[in-house]
Structure formats: structure tokens, C-alpha cells
Amino acid sequence: MPAETAKLARAFAAQHDHNPRFIAEAPGRVNLIGEHTDYNEGFVLPVAIDRTVAVAVAPREDTRVRAHSVDHDQRDDFSLDTARRHPMGGWRNYVRGVLWALLDSQLPLRGVDLSISGDVPQGAGLSSSAALELALSGAVCAASGIEMTPRDLALHCQRAEHMYAGVQCGIMDQFAAALGRKGCALFIDCQSLETEDVPLPTGLAIVIIDSKVPRELADTPYNQRRRECAEAARALGLASLRSADESQIESLPDDLGRRARHVVTENARVLAAKAALRDGDCATIRRLFAESHASLRDDFEASTPEIDLLVELATGAPGAIGARLTGGGFGGCTVNLVEAARAQRFGEAVASEYRRRTSLDGEAYFCRAVDGMKVHDA
Ligand code: GLA
Asked: Is the pTM of this model over 0.90?
């Protein structure tokens, strides 16, 4: 058993006075390209990363849920019949939200004891919440003897996010946490929900730089952007911006037109980036990342001065191939594709120059692409 998992099993035993039965683990994600396209039925290209949330679980004979966050040193205790929103918010709402979504589908859940621990940075745009949701749903279903595909678990987790976290997110984060593949990016067509593994070229490394300007998406204009996109689609007489083209957009008022232009051009960039990754075409990747960032900054207005600075610093750094804002935006991280041999130097150079210029504690994370959620015996 890996050291981290063994530590979680010990923390479970100390909290609940017996051993766990299963441990479920799910990864965070970094999105290579395709931002704010998922809820517009478009294309995305995320990678599941080797930062995970793990949930240790054992079934109970009654309908109680005794939950324990090892990292926060906090507890929650409630009955499945009353899995209502917890007024304290935070991690407890994700636990209750996921249970609510599963119960709402009439699944025969058992009461459980559970302990949670993880190393996905929170509020950084790396989907710590989707990782928690997937690990939790996998753990609770295993403890209840319910078999569900990772894809169905992900759809339940998305509902939990909508209802309990108040974020009208798309499906990207939950699909990446459920269906990611080692060594690959996950291409998702968010209209058909078909996915495809896209192998990452050897010799390319993913470096994430955290601006350390944290945010919860529920407190940002994320939902407003989603509404603006829906309004733009309605004005064009379309079900979603997926089927819009650039010429139609000119008829929209300025703000809506810029939001829609981001989505339409970003979808085209995802398809081009998928091909460029397959061909190992670094010049095209560099251009697409730069265009994606500019579009998020100027048309979608989802960047911040700190994130713009990180992208600018990356451009001249050793081994840089492409840099852009990743995730929902309004803070968080940049994703950088870098020549593997120079990844360490790149990360250190960008993070230290950023710290010098801003006095913020910017940090580089060196990540590998890993498999999605797994459950094993404890
Ligand atoms: C957040 C949401 C995703 C997606 C991204 C932006 O991560 O959870 O569904 O919309 O923002 O691409």
C-alpha cells in the first residue's frame, strides 16, 4: 500500500475505531485547452494529474454518515434521510451533495464511515472539488455494493456541483477525474459526451504555475459567463454556441459577441491542438496556447493581472512551448507545456521571477498524466 494510502487508513482507524473496507482515489485535472467551452457543448482537452483526493470508507449497519476530513481536522455526522446542505459550506457540502445526487437517482446507499485526504491544491483551478466528488461517489458506491460506470458517477457528481456548490459547471472536470488515462490528454466532445485518449508526446512536460490568488468559482463571474453564452446562443436562434460560426457572431451586441467569439474560436483551437499534439508540432501548440490565452483575457474577460504576468514570464523562460490560463479563471493557475529536459529550470525561473515581481508566493507543480478514479480494497 503506498505511504499516503496507508496514512489515510491509519487516520480512518483512529477516527472510527475500525479499519476501512475500500479506498477510492481520484485525480485533479489541468486543462490543456478548451476553456469555457464544455457548457457550450464544445470541445475540451484536459489531463488528469498526479495530485489526488482519497476517500477511505466502510459500510455501516444503519443510515448514518460519519465523515471526517483529515486535512481540515473536521467532522460531519448526519443521516442519509436528511442529507441536506450543511450551513458551514466547504468540504461538507460536497459530501452531502454527492450523496444527495446518488439518493435522488433512487440508489440503495448504505450508511458509511469515511475519511478524506488529498493533495490537490484548493481554489487553484485544478478541480480539487471534482476529485473529491469522484473519490467520494466511488467509495460510497463500493461500500453499498452498487456498480456504476465512471461516466455515470461523473454525471451524478456534476449534478452535486450544480445543486450544492452553486457552480453551473460543465462536464470537463468530472469526466477528467473519472476517465483520464495515464500518459494521455482526454479529448471530450461535450455534446455527444464521446471521449478519446490523446497520447502526450514524449519529451513534453506539463508544468503548472499557481498564482496563489485563490478563489471559489461560486464567488466569481463564472455563472454570469455561462448565462451570457446561453443568451448569445438564444439571440442566434441556436441551442448552444457549438453550432455558431464567426460570421453569425457579428450580429450580436458587443459583450455577447466577444463571449461567443471566444467560444467559437476556442473550439477550433481544441481540434487544432489535438492534431498538433498527435504530430508533435510544437510551433502550432505555441501559437494556439497564445491565442487561447489572449481570447480568454480580452474576449471572455476571465483572466487576472497575475495570470497575465505568469503567461508573459513563461514566454521567455527556458524550454517554454506554450503557456495559458487554465480552468475557470479569475485567479488560479497557468498550464505550461515545456521541453521535458528543461521543465525544472522553467518552473523555478517563472515562479521565482513572479514572486519577485508580486510578493505573492507563486509555486510550480510538475505533473504527470494519470488514470482516472480507482477503487481498491483497503
Ligand atoms: C471550471 C468548470 C468546468 C469548465 C471550466 C472552464 O473548471 O468546472 O466545467 O467550465 O471551469 O473551462
From this structure: yes
Judging by beta carbons within 10 Å of its beta carbon (0-12, 13-18, 19+), is residue 149 exposed, middle or buried? Answer: exposed
Q: Kind and range of the H or E element at 27? A: strand 22-31
Grid coordinates belonging to 273: 491542438
Rounded-to-integer distance, Cα 306 and Cα 354, Å: 8
Establish whether residue 170 lines the binding site of ligand 1, counting it when its CB lies within 6 angstroms of any ligand atom. yes
Spell out the domain ranges in the chain: 3-194+370-377, 201-367
Residues 194 and 192: their CA atoms lie apart, in Å, by 5
Ligand 1 atom nearest the C-alpha of 38 is 10
Spatial CA neighbour of 90 closest among 220, 216, 212: 216
Residue 220 CA to ligand 1 centre (angstroms): 12
- Fold observed for domain 3-194+370-377: Ribosomal Protein S5; domain 2 (3.30.230)
pLDDT tens track, the chain, 378 positions:
788 899 999 999 999 999 999 999 999 999 999 999 999 999 999 999 999 999 999 999 999 999 999 999 999 999 998 877 777 788 999 999 999 999 999 999 999 999 999 999 999 999 999 999 999 999 999 999 999 999 999 999 999 999 988 899 999 999 999 999 999 999 999 999 999 999 999 999 999 999 999 788 888 999 999 999 999 999 999 999 999 999 999 999 999 999 999 999 999 999 999 999 999 999 999 999 999 999 999 999 999 999 999 999 999 899 999 999 999 999 999 999 999 999 999 999 999 999 999 999 999 999 999 999 999 999
Residue with CA closest to ligand 1 atom 11: 328
- Take atom 8 of ligand 1 and give the residue whose Cα is closest: 169
CATH homologous superfamily of 201-367: GHMP kinase, C-terminal domain (3.30.70.890)
How many residues are given for the chain? 378
